[in-house]
C-alpha cells in the first residue's frame, strides 16, 4: 500500500458544484453533499484508508482540504480521488507520498 | 428522495439561512456582501462537517463562522475603517445604545420587512424574500416562476441596488413592521398562489413555492405570536395545502372538491389550520381571517354533501363588505349555487361575465358553464365551456374543462340534459 495526498480545490462554482448564477448553493443540495461526503469519509475510515486530513482555515482558500490516504497503486488512488471529487465537488489532485510498492504497514 | 438526515440538515440550513444573512447584514451593512458571507459560511460547513462531524449546535457553529467572516470582510476593506469604529459596539457584542434599540426583536423579521420594503416592486419583493429569507437559489426561484434565471437575477440585483441607493440600512434603521405587515403577508400569499395554482404551466401545483410560503407564514407566527393576521394566513395556507395531493387525478387532470378523496387530505395540516384559526380569531375579522374561515368550512366538512354552504355564503357576504371585488362576488355565486340551487346564482354570474376584471379570465366562464349545466341550460353551458377553454392557460385546468364539456355534450346528445338558451 502506498500513501497518497489528495488535494481538493474549489471548483469554478465552489465545492458544491454548479448551483446557479454566481455559484449559489441550493440548501437541499448542500445538505445532500454533507451527508453523502460524511458517508464516503466513513467508508474510507472503516477500511482504514484515511490516515489524516487537513482543512483550510480561510474559507475562501483555493485548496480547501487535503486527505492522506492509502491506496494499492496510482490507479486506485485516482479512483479514490474521483470518488472524493464526486461527493465533495472539489477538483482533486493526486500526489504519491511514498514510492510504489512500499509497504506502509 | 432525501434521507432523514438530509431532510433534517436541509431544515436546519433553511432555519439558519435568514439568521446568517441578518447577522452578516448587521455587520457589513450591505445585502450583497451579507449574502456572499452567508454563502461562504455554508461552504465552510460543507468542507468541515463531513470530516469533523456535525457540531452539537450547528446553528451556533454557523453563526460564529458567519460573524467572523463578516468581521474579516469589513476589516479587510481599508475604506471601511471608520465604519468599523462606528460598529465597534456591535462587533464586540455590546448591546446597542437605548435610542437605537430595535423595535423588532428578531433579525429574521427585520430581514423580511427589509425585503418587502415599499421602495421595491411586488415582483422584486417576492424574489428578494425567496432568496434572502427562504434561501432559494436564483435558479430555483426562476424555475418556480417559469421565468428565465437571468431575469430573476436581474430583479434581485436591482432590488439590492435600490435598497443600497436609498440607504436602507439594516444595522441602524429598524423598519416599522406595523404598516409593513400587510404587504409582507401579501408577498407570502402571492408566493403561495404562484406555487399552488400557476397561471400557465403543465402541472397544477408547484409545491416548493407553496410549501415555502407556508413555512414563511409559520415563521411569522413564531416571530409575531401576538399578531392575529399571520395566524390567519398560516391557517389559510395549511387548509389549502392539506388537499394538495388530491387536487389532481391520473394524467394530471384537475379534481374538484366533490371528486377529491377526503381520506387522503392531510389531517396534520388541517389540525394545524384549526389551531392557527383559533389564534387568529382573537383578532378582528379581517379579510385573511374570513378566507381562513372559508377554507376551514371545506377542510373540516366530513363530506362534500355535508358542506355548510349557507355558512359559506354568509362568510362571503361578510368578506364582500370588506373586499367588494368581482373575485369575491364570483366565489359567493358558486356558494349560492350550492346553497340555493343554480338558478339562484345565474343573475349574479350573468353580470360578472361582463365585468372588465373577470371577462378575460377563464374562471368566470367555467363557473357559469357549470351552473348553466346544472340548471339544464346545456347550449349555454357548452358556449361557456368554449369561452373558458379559449382563456385557460393551465394545462390541467384545460383538460378538466375539455372533459366537462365532452360530458355535458354527451349527456345532451343522449337526451339526459335539456337544451337551454345561450345568454
Describe the structure concisely for a colleague.
The complex is a heterodimer of chains A (105) and B (423). By secondary structure, chain A is α+β, with helices and mostly antiparallel strands. Chain A is 33% helix and 28% strand.
The geometry of chain A reads as globular
Oligomer type: heterodimer
Described by strand count, sense and barrel closure, the largest sheet of chain A is: 4 strands, antiparallel
Determine the strand fraction of chain A and express it as a percent band.
Answer: 25-35%
N/C terminus separation of chain A = 8 Å
Q: Largest beta sheet of chain A: what is the strand line-up?
A: 2-3-1-4
Distance between the termini of chain B: 52 Å
H/I helix tally of chain B: 19
Annotation, overall tally of beta strands of chain B: 0
The share of residues in helices of chain B is 55-70%
What kind of sheet is the major sheet of chain B? none
β content of chain B, as a range? under 5%
Beta-strand segment tally of chain A? 4
* Unreliable residue runs of chain B: 93-104, 419-423
Helical proportion of chain A, percent range: 25-40%
Mean pLDDT of chain B: 84
Quote the average pLDDT of chain A: 84
User: What sequence of helices (H) and strands (E) makes up the elements of chain A?
Assistant: EHEEHE
If you had to describe this structure to a student in words, what would you say it looks like?
The complex is a heterodimer of chains A (about 100) and B (about 425). Chain A is of the alpha+beta class. Chain A has helices at about 25-45, 75-90, and strands at about 1-10, 50-55, 65-70, 90-95. Chain A has a 4-stranded antiparallel sheet, covered by helices on one side. In chain A, a hairpin with a 7-residue loop joins strand 2 and strand 3. The radius of gyration of chain B is 25 Å and the shape is elongated. Helix content of chain B is about 70%, strand content about 0%. Chain B has about 425 residues and is an all-alpha fold. In chain B, helix 1 crosses helix 5, helix 13 runs antiparallel to helix 14 and helix 15 runs antiparallel to helix 16. The longest helix of chain B has 25 residues, at about 5-30. The interface of A and B includes residues 25, 34 and 88 of A.
Amino acid at each position: 500500500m502506498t500513501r497518497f495526498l489528495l488535494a481538493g480545490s474549489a471548483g469554478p462554482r465552489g465545492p458544491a458544484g454548479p448551483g446557479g448564477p454566481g455559484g449559489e448553493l441550493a440548501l437541499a443540495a448542500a445538505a445532500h453533499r454533507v451527508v453523502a461526503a460524511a458517508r464516503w469519509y466513513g467508508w474510507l475510515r472503516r477500511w482504514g484508508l484515511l490516515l489524516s486530513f487537513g482543512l483550510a482555515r480561510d474559507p475562501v482558500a483555493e485548496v480547501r482540504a487535503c486527505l492522506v490516504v492509502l491506496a494499492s497503486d496510482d490507479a486506485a488512488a485516482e479512483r479514490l480521488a474521483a470518488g472524493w471529487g464526486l461527493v465533495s465537488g472539489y477538483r482533486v489532485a493526486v500526489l504519491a507520498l511514498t514510492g510504489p510498492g512500499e509497504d506502509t504497514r | 428522495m432525501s434521507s432523514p438526515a438530509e431532510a433534517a440538515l436541509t431544515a436546519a440550513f433553511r432555519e439558519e439561512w435568514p439568521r446568517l444573512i441578518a447577522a452578516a447584514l448587521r455587520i457589513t451593512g450591505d445585502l450583497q456582501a451579507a449574502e456572499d458571507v452567508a454563502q461562504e459560511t455554508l461552504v465552510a460547513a460543507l468542507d468541515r462537517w463531513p470530516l469533523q462531524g456535525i457540531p452539537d449546535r450547528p446553528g451556533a457553529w454557523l453563526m460564529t463562522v458567519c460573524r467572523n467572516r463578516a468581521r474579516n470582510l469589513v476589516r479587510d476593506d481599508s475604506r471601511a475603517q471608520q465604519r468599523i469604529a462606528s460598529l465597534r459596539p456591535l462587533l464586540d457584542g455590546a448591546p446597542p445604545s437605548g435610542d437605537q434599540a430595535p423595535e423588532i426583536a428578531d433579525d429574521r423579521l427585520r430581514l423580511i420587512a427589509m425585503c418587502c420594503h415599499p421602495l421595491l416592486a411586488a415582483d422584486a419583493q417576492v424574489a428578494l424574500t425567496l432568496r434572502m429569507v427562504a434561501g432559494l437559489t436564483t435558479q430555483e426561484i426562476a424555475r418556480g416562476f417559469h421565468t428565465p434565471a437571468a431575469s430573476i437575477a436581474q430583479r434581485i440585483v436591482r432590488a439590492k441596488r435600490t435598497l443600497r441607493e436609498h440607504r436602507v440600512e439594516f444595522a441602524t434603521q429598524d423598519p416599522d413592521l406595523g404598516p409593513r405587515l400587510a404587504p409582507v403577508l401579501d408577498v407570502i400569499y402571492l408566493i403561495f398562489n404562484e406555487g399552488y395554482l400557476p397561471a400557465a404551466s403543465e402541472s397544477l401545483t408547484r409545491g416548493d413555492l407553496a410549501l415555502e410560503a407556508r413555512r414563511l407564514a409559520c415563521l411569522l407566527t413564531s416571530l409575531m405570536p401576538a399578531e392575529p393576521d399571520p395566524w390567519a394566513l398560516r391557517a389559510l395556507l395549511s387548509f389549502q395545502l392539506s388537499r394538495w395531493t388530491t387536487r389532481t387525478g391520473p394524467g394530471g387532470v384537475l379534481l374538484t372538491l366533490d371528486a377529491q378523496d377526503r381520506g387522503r387530505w392531510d389531517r396534520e395540516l388541517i389540525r394545524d389550520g384549526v389551531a392557527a384559526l383559533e389564534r387568529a380569531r382573537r383578532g378582528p375579522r379581517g379579510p385573511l381571517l374570513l378566507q381562513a374561515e372559508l377554507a376551514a368550512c371545506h377542510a373540516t366538512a366530513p363530506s362534500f354533501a355535508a358542506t355548510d354552504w349557507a355558512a359559506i355564503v354568509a362568510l362571503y357576504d361578510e368578506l364582500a363588505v370588506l373586499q367588494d371585488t368581482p373575485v369575491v362576488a364570483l366565489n359567493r355565486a358558486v356558494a349560492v349555487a350550492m346553497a340555493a340551487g343554480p338558478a339562484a346564482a345565474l343573475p349574479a354570474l350573468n353580470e360578472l361575465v361582463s365585468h372588465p376584471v373577470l371577462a378575460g379570465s377563464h374562471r368566470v366562464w367555467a363557473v357559469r358553464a357549470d351552473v348553466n349545466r346544472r340548471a339544464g341550460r346545456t347550449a349555454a353551458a357548452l358556449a361557456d365551456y368554449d369561452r373558458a377553454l379559449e382563456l385557460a392557460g393551465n394545462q390541467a385546468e384545460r383538460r378538466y374543462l375539455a372533459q366537462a364539456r365532452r360530458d355535458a355534450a354527451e349527456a345532451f346528445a343522449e337526451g339526459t340534459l335539456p337544451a337551454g338558451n345561450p345568454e
